[in-house]
Design goal:
It contains ten helices and eight strands. It is an alpha/beta fold and 287 residues long. It has an eight-stranded mixed sheet with strand order 1-2-4-3-5-6-7-8, with helices on both faces. The radius of gyration is 17 Å and the shape is globular.
Length: 287
């Protein structure tokens, strides 16, 4: 029997804190597992197989729906801190004592909170399309406000506008990503229900509120962090990635050219290469 991949890994369930979490796991079962936390309105089927399968070559990959998302039961909390506690409960339910975490978009805010609250649990952190608390343009930039309020006839256009730039190259990369994303035809995840977006927006709103000295909390995330993003991110402005790199004690930054919020989906091969180097600890600086 062949080893499971992004397309074939079965959906499994585990219970913790009264929530039945849906998850999939696949890849090399050695070392520290890599837990993925997705973007707004994302579920198990929102990831790029080129990214997940690529990273699964080096370590086990675990995708999951947090509380209230898609096939998981429960309610979506209205803060990233509470979402992080649910994520930690899920990881504990799998009896994992050390993980790496890859958080994309709002998943990166949840990941920051897991690292803050559970420094014993998280070995390394990868945050993509991210922003610190009270970052520029939080909760919504004018551009993201326009995207979220637009009445799209085709939902794919919503993701293209949010994740990719207007250049022909980026647009083509976006369409290619959507084909890869949607290639799984069996055991698809449940759709996102109407209660998810309001709770996630409320969490974004709370993330825009300052607490103490701006960015000071980042000094408490002492583990190695890879910050990655696109040069032209309109969802969370790219300057936020620089704020993260400058204020995290042990961070390195990669900014991809002609890329927006979905840089990891526009450059999946390059992103996997950079992330693999970082997670393996083969270099202090990624060239």
């Amino acid at each position: 029997m062949s080893n499971p991949t992004h397309q074939s890994a079965p959906t499994q369930f585990v219970e913790a804190n009264g929530v039945r979490f849906a998850y999939r796991r696949f890849g090399k079962k050695e070392g520290v597992p890599l837990v993925f936390i997705p973007h707004i309105l994302g579920n198990l089927d929102s990831w790029d197989p080129s990214v997940t399968d690529g990273l699964a070559q080096g370590q086990e990959v675990i995708l999951f729906d947090n509380a209230g998302i898609a096939s998981s039961s429960g309610e979506v909390p209205d803060t990233f801190a509470a979402m992080a506690r649910d994520a930690g409960a899920f990881i504990d339910a799998l009896h994992l004592t050390k993980v790496d975490i890859l958080g994309f978009s709002i998943g990166s805010m949840i990941a920051q909170n897991v690292a803050l609250e559970r420094p014993d649990l998280v070995r390394k952190l990868v945050i993509v399309g991210s922003a610190p608390r009270d970052g520029d343009g939080i909760p919504l930039t004018p551009e993201s406000q326009a995207i979220f309020t637009n009445k799209y006839g085709n939902l794919d256009d919503f993701w293209i506008d949010g994740f990719f730039t207007a250049s022909p190259e980026s647009q083509a990369a976006g369409r290619a990503f959507l084909k890869r994303r949607d290639a799984r035809v069996v055991d698809r995840d449940a759709p996102i229900n109407e209660n998810v977006q309001p709770a996630q927006f409320a969490a974004l709103q709370e993330w825009g509120n300052p607490i103490g000295e701006r960015f000071a909390y980042l000094k408490n995330i002492k583990i190695p962090v890879l910050v990655a993003g696109g040069k032209s991110d309109i969802i969370f402005y790219t300057i936020n990635s620089f704020y993260l790199e400058q204020n995290l004690p042990n961070a390195q930054l990669i900014v991809y050219p002609d890329a927006a919020h979905g840089s990891l989906f526009q450059y999946p091969g390059l992103f996997v290469e950079h992330t693999t180097i970082f997670l393996r600890g083969e270099a202090n600086v990624i060239q």
